[in-house]
Batch of 2 targets.
Target 1
Amino acid sequence: MVVPTPAVRTKKTRAVGIPTIDLSSLNRSELIVKACEQYGFFKVINHGVPREIVMGMEEEGQDFFSRPPIEKQKAGPATPFGYGCKNIGFNGDSGELEYLLLHTDPVSIFERSKSISRDPAKFRKGHLARLLSYAQILSLNQNQNHKMASCAANDYIEAVKDLACEILELVGEGLWLEDKTILSGLIRDFQSDSFFRLNHYPQFKDGKNNVWDPHHKFQSSTVGDSKRVGFGEHSDPQILTILRSNDVGGLQVCTNDGLWMPVPPDPSDFYVLVGDALQAFTNGRFSSVRHRAMANSAKPRLSMMYFGAPPVDSWISPLPEMISPLKPCLYRPFTWGELKKAAYSLRLSDCRLDLFKST
Ligand code: GA4
């Protein structure tokens, strides 16, 4: 875990109804388990991710989305990785957003950074450092070394991956798992299939979109209250998501009683979302949280999500500690690759885990 900077240690106002967990508190593992059981969603404070790493990534994201469409399209289409605009997945879902979806593996970031950033070395820096041998790094000239000292995608991904692992180890502790690193080990794995996503929701004014194609026809993304949906209702297929947004609201999470709860934006902290894979590992003790993003804001919203996932071939099945005569195994074993394939073959809002229920 990186050492926290003073800026992120400031006490924050608690969001009403949303569990807020202080990662420096003594009973944090207990509180995390409780939040995962009740909501599948919580906020973390005192997380230790340096502000400059977060701001560095936000600046790169803002810079990318401020460019002309023709330039952004060079990083697309998203199949599924790359730049995407409005279309989500491959089965007709759409929303009022544009995005960049990246695989977090170093080679992939290295390749993508060329079409994403005006300064690819700055965008991918840390990954480049990991790809080069120590001798190669020493032979870089002063200017390149300087660029390597600034950072964006890699440093951000590394920092939030560490945060996700810390949280998963606390989950292991709180659930009294024999091996507390069993879940974090999956996303630390060199072959982890984790993703990173930047979502940009352009601004709306007076309920009408003045800066974004007003003639766009919605498919499944309009809700009854006539507010437009930026990213429709869904759960994340992975183990855990670490979400951070700028100071613009829009995220809503669905509570157990089916109500949509608006999540106040908090640029200095992170929100954590339980994904489908964690629901299966915990045999349904935790439920993946259904959430959506509304696109009715007066300001553009930029959110950044790290989706922690296992390697494609690794098996997902309820952990032995989660099974008892009173709680029989709910899911048959399946691989992360199978769950991902199911996700991409269904619609955004579908409950893909249902396909893996034991008979
Ligand atoms: C939801 C969580 C992540 O954003 C994502 C999304 C993915 C995509 O946008 O390409 C999916 C969606 C997400 C779930 C169902 C499928 C796949 C779009 C879609 C319709 C990157 C992911 O892993 O699953």
Note: The CA atoms of residues 65 and 200 lie 7 Å apart.
Target 2
Amino acid sequence: MSHPEKIVVCGAGGFIGGHLVADLLKQGYTDIRAVDKKPFEEWYQKFDGVENLVLDLQEKEACDKAVTGCEIIYNLAADMGGMGFIELNRALCMLSVLINTHLLMAAKEQKVVKRFFYASSACVYAADKQINPDLTALTEADAYPAMPEDGYGWEKLFSERMCRHFSEDFGLLTRVARYHNVYGPNGTYDGGREKAPAAMCRKVIEAKLSGKHHIEIWGDGHQTRSFMYIDDCVLGTQSIMNSKTVTMPINLGSSEMVSINQLVDIVEEIAGIKLERSYNLKAPKGVNGRNSDNTLIKKLLDWEPSTPLRVGMEKTYRWIYDEIKAKS
Ligand code: NAD
């Protein structure tokens, strides 16, 4: 199938952006620009036949370069990480507002842009809706009255609204997905920005390889989350982008809720090992409970993410295991 549109993926050197470029290539898109701030050698996935640009998208001029001639813009660029990063780097997280703001301004000035995608987060949801680990899942309306995650969540909520107003005031067609914890191969698993699924895999692998059969868990382990496998995320992102009906921010996440203790059980089972657990109650742990209510995405797209956690974690574990072995 021929795909004549020119697409830019911002944040293409990162986890989700890299997988999105891979999928677009697989579908036969030939005119793709990939942009990231990181040096090219550090991109998780690199592709020939793509125009790869290293640009700091907090700068307006860089955004102009990034979007020139593009009809489709995916903004997946942000200075972010797991709880350990976002709780300790609120100002840095908020500075990502410059990326989306300048990309929107550049997109508006480019007369050819057909669609603009912004990657928001479940961190926009109000804190008082996430106190109970056995919570009912979050619906899109639960973002207001606003009391999102400090720093990162406020930036996401503000940028969502910026997309909305660029649509309403300037006619730029924008789409926003609220991602709930995405995991899979080719993402961060160490260094401080990793998220829970990758961190658990790394810790279990390190315990297995070192023979020290112990794991430290952040929080009391009862906090609940849902985790979406990367393939579901990439498919859902494009379905939302191409949809005529998804005009407001929408949940993109799994509704398979587990506690962090259950997540560790799964990784131990994959690794074939049982570890002694200790709980660090002082470590950043985020809200007590969070899950994705998928009623709206099922209604509008007749679809929702569906990869079972056990299946996705097995693939993630294998990739991280090979990476760690290759480095040792
Ligand atoms: P990631 O950190 O792997 O990728 C983000 C990329 O953006 C990085 O490669 C980084 O170098 C790049 N970047 C940062 N600042 C930049 C700048 N000034 N100019 C250009 N590039 C810059 O993260 P990810 O997991 O791929 O997340 C992609 C998007 O999805 C982000 O907006 C993130 O906030 C959002 N999101 C992710 C998750 C998740 O679970 N991974 C959950 C909710 C929302």
Note: The chain is about 40% helix and 15% strand.
